[in-house]
Fold:
Amino acid sequence: MSDAICVHQLCKEYPDFSLQNVSFCLPKGSIMGFIGENGAGKTTTIKTMLGIAKRTSGSVKLFGLGFEDHEKEIKNRIGVVFDECSFHDTLTAGDVSKILGKIYSTWDDPLYLRYLKQFDLPEKKKIKEYSRGMKMKLGIAAALSHHPDLLILDEPTSGLDPVIREEILDIFLEFIQDEEHSILLSSHITSDLDKIADYLTFIHEGKIVLSKSKDEILDDMGILKCSIEEFDALDKTSFLTYRTNQFGCEVLIKDKMRFITRHPEMIVDPVSTESIMVFYARGKAV
Amino acid sequence: MTPSGLPGLMLKDLLNLRPTSKTLIVMLLIFGIIFIPMGNTMTVYFILMIFAALVPMTSLTMDDMAKWDRYALTMPVTRKDIVRSKYLLMVLLFGVAFVISAIIACVSYYLMPANATPFWFMFLVGALGVFYGSLLLPLLYKFGSEKARYMMFVLMALIGLLLVGWFALFGESFPGDLFLYVLITCAVSILVFVASYFMSVRLYEKKEF
Structure:
């Protein structure tokens, strides 16, 4: 199985922030959730990946091709949606189609009009009169209408109500029915990712802390609840991060089954995407 | 050859400038009605050329506000295409400004041959307009539309000084020499325009969004 995205040791230095050796691969035909708290480096990673910001070092391959030699080919095959609408306020949805039709060689006008209808987006209304949800849906319609093989979405569902979010997630699931299609979806709304992601990549302070299939993560990882004394006494090879509270200690462990066989008396709860994110962002390293 | 995306980028600018162009046309009509009957076509040429130099700047500001550039860079267009589209827009606008000026010039020669502004003056003003626009765009790319807006006024004063200086130096020349000086001024501003394009491309290649 080939990869739609392969990022290797990507670095980007800013005066006050840096991406450090970011590596992950997204296999074709799947959805990857890219998770991290605000400011963890999700948008920077996406921008650096696409060459919108210049990388300091590392390599990025989309569909096995490098940007150095295949920039236009790659960009014809991707659709990108940012967290904010990128179209000018004075334009209408109809204008967007005229513009993008001249930019993408594979622009499909009937398909775009179908999306506008499906999303209830008026073609002649100015974008400045659209609600936030409508703007997001317009961005998604535009990103889908040149038949991309890969969608890259930076927080497309943030700030939207659950009904619209559900609607948008359905569109993504429909898109992924084609096995050649893939999606990279950055978000901090973990419930959305629980619903649709096949792979999860967690980023924290510019570093990838975990990148695996969702099933593997949910099967292997667990949250151990114990007292501080127990925590001190235990062998810490399976521990990743821990948090203390007034009742004792919560520890994120990487091999739940092995740990339980060794310590059958201990309580190990299942993990959720949200708890992993919080553990990495707020927990202390062992 | 793969399509460059340039027509799409330019169409985006033209569609975006619809509201601006309406205001400009109204302003032009007002100025035209005031100045042309006074025989003061010079001022109208001047205004036209300033419009032509400032409109690409407006379009850049609008791109900044919409965060368009980072989105455009995900499309099959290169950074060079994006800069090129702005320079082509400027050429197009000066073309339009020039045609309107020429029409005004012809009409005023026909109606009031005695106090019509000489034709060469139109070229001189056009050359200074191109010069002004060529200085503005690299500044916009370097400093962003917010800061460059103030530099615009400083530059405008500079252009005013240049015009006054030009007249002090060459204004009283013999017609033959005058023609030569106008020609040289035009050539210089075209050179500055070309240099400005390459400079903007270099600045834009380094820009991050």
Chain A touches chain B at residues 47, 50-54, 71-73, 75-76, 78, 80, 82, 84-91, 95, 98-105, 152 (CB under 8 Å).
